[in-house]
Amino acid sequence: ANVQYAELMDFCYVWLKRHLAAHHGAFARVSTRTGAELTVNQTEGRDIAHFTDGLSQVFSSFARALKPGGPFVFTYHHNDLTAYLPIAAALLDASLVCTVALPCPAEMGASIHISGTRSSVVDTIFVCRSTGVIRANDFEPSMQNLKQLLRIDLVQLQQAKLKPTVGDARCLLLGHLTRLAVWYLRPEWNPSLLAGEKLVQVKAKIEEFCPMAQIGQLADEIVAGLAEIGLFAVLMEERASYDVSF
Fold first, then answer.
1. What's the sign of the alpha-carbon dihedral 226, 137, 132, 128?
2. DSSP 94
3. For 54-68, what is each residue's pLDDT tens digit?
4. Phi, psi at residue 223, to the nearest 5°?
5. Three-state secondary-structure class, residue 110
6. Count of CB atoms situated within 10 Å of the CB of 52
């Protein structure tokens, strides 16, 4: 069974409640669980459309509070492309562009729920803005450029003494594809569409860049070639270098 972090929180909460309930009203509740949770939870009847709509409201609220050009930053990782679709839709609804996606070690490979699986221990850090400047070469949706971006991420993780896995590569690739989908959908995006329609558009755009069947293959290919290439060689590969304002 898939036990969510929101559900596991009660195991911590009962101990905190014993010591803090008398001093802080927030700990007077019996449980941390609430109908307002923003999760996909089949048991509770919350589907991905619910999650998409709620996340859009959250991101839009943050976007309104940002100073012009100010960053909105969050981390995320998942093994399934479907889990990235609400992220892209919410960014588009909030009129935010992901200017860069960065790799970041996030979990221990020895964790019980990760050990022995193909899951990732790496998050993508999404750095988003409503206005600013991007490097055009980071937004070229060709397969060659996707491979280059992924190589740079993975070699930099190696430099940080992490041994990247195929799961890590897959998650980082999904992060880049999400970032690209937001950029190329934004000119014609319609925030008034139903959540399901938004998710269909995002998925279709991502698959224009890299069909689902090739995502795992690409991750395997890049990880397999890491031993043969160094950071200097990766960074020296010729790429476009002009900037674009938005």
1. negative
2. T
3. 999 999 999 999 999
4. -65, -40
5. coil
6. 24
pLDDT at 36 over 90: no
For residue 139, give the amino acid letter: F
What does the block give as tokens for 117? 């699986």
Which three-class secondary structure state does DSSP give residue 114? coil
What secondary structure letter does DSSP report for 38?
-
Q: How far is CA 155 from CA 61, 95, 148, in A?
A: 36, 32, 11
State the number of CA atoms in the 13 A half-sphere of 107 facing the CB.
20
Do residues 241 and 135 make contact, with C-beta atoms less than 8 angstroms apart? yes
- Residue type at 155 in one-letter notation: V
Distance between CA 246 and CA 244 in Å, rounded?
Answer: 7
Q: Which residue has the tokens 């449980």?
A: 31
- Gap between the Cα atoms of 103 and 237, Å rounded: 20
Asked if 49 contacts 198 with a C-beta cutoff of 8 angstroms, the reply is no
126-139 average pLDDT score: 93
Measured in whole angstroms, the distance separating CA 139 from the mean position of its chain's CA atoms is: 16
By C-alpha distance, which of 87, 82, 110 is closest to 98?
87
Specify the pTM.
0.86
Structure tokens at 7: 């559900």
* pLDDT the model gives residue 88: 98
Q: What is the pLDDT of residue 241?
A: 57
| Selection from 145, 199, 144, 151 nearest residue 172 by Cα | 151
Partnered with residue 128 across adjacent β-strands are 72, 98
Q: Concatenated DSSP letters for 136-154?
A: GGGG---HHHHHHHHHHHH
DSSP state of 29: S
